[in-house]
Amino acid sequence: MINKLHPRYPQSYLTHFINDFTKEQITLLFETISKINEEPEQADNKLYFWNLCAKFMLDTFLDDIKYLKSDIYDLCNITAEYTGKSRLHFLDNIRKSFYMGMVFNCGSGISIGEAENSKIFVSSPLGNDEIIDCVYTDTILEFIYYEFHTVLKNNLPIKLCKNCNLPFVPKGRVDSLYCERTVPGLKDKCSVVGANNTYKSNLSDTETEFYAARRRYNTRVSRNPLLKTEFEVWKIKTKEKLTAYRNGKISADEFKNWFMDDEWTKI
Ligand SMILES: [Zn+2]
């Protein structure tokens, strides 16, 4: 199917393509392929399929990606002196000429609907036959380069995520510090992890100790349901004490003595 859709990928590439993937990735790809076979008219499935391929292939399959990545990292450190496409001046001459010599096969086409989570591909909602600008690409690489050009052309900022240290184009506010990727091995996105870290670093040591104590009590109560009512009462008092501490009405020591006192758990 890949060969039929993209004749530039020969059969031998396909073996290589499969070799680099894990069993889970291949399963996911095949599930998507069968969905496409069932409903060939569904553009959403095809987009999702290419999204997956691009995601799985980037690090292993295409050598060009290494150069592109290094260019993108260079552009993350750019000063305000260059904007838009002029940011290419920041690269060395060989890379700059490489990008400047690029030609894309652009034209018009029927909109395939709204792109999810994308600030780069702006399209109209599904179901309307609007004719929009489009680009025809034969390879994923060409598509990625087009995307890169679009980011530069539209003067979108390219930033380094403060959590995973990977480049990203902020989806919402331009001053976002964190990307929307899911942190490897965790359930949360960098933006969520980042917000929690900022919250924690803003907490005083006393508050950090307080939250640790509350977690300890919570564990005790879950092991001994008889403490549940007492715990609810404690939590209500907690709110008052925390506010009093934050407003400077009681000292850190006073607050600490209060929440470290675990007499109420010994009934
Ligand atoms: Zn990130």
Q: What kind of assembly state do the chains in view correspond to?
A: single chain
The radius of gyration is 27 Å
Parts with pLDDT < 50 across at least 5 consecutive residues: none
Overall body shape = elongated
Number of helices: 11
Q: N-to-C terminal Cα separation, in Å? A: 69 Å
The residue fraction in helices comes out at 40-55%
Largest sheet: 2 strands, antiparallel
**Mean pLDDT across every amino acid position:** 80
Question: Domains counted in the coordinates: how many?
Answer: 3
Global structural class: mainly alpha
Bound molecules: zinc ion
What is the number of strand segments?
Answer: 4
Element order, helices and strands?
HHHHHHEEHEEHHHH
**Residues in β-strands, percent:** 5-15%
- Order of strands in the sheet with the most strands? 1-2
How would you characterize the overall build of this protein?
The protein has 267 residues and is mostly helical. The chain has 3 domains: 59 residues, no CATH class; 95 residues, no CATH class; 63 residues, no CATH class. Helices cover 52% and strands 6% of the residues. The chain has 11 helices and 4 strands. The strands form 2 sheets. Strands 1-2 form a two-stranded antiparallel sheet. It has a two-stranded antiparallel ribbon with strand order 3-4. The longest helix is centred in the last third of the chain and has 19 residues. Bound molecules: zinc ion.
Main features:
two-stranded antiparallel ribbon, binds zinc ion, 52% helix, single chain, 11 helices, 3 domains, 267 residues, mainly alpha, two-stranded antiparallel sheet
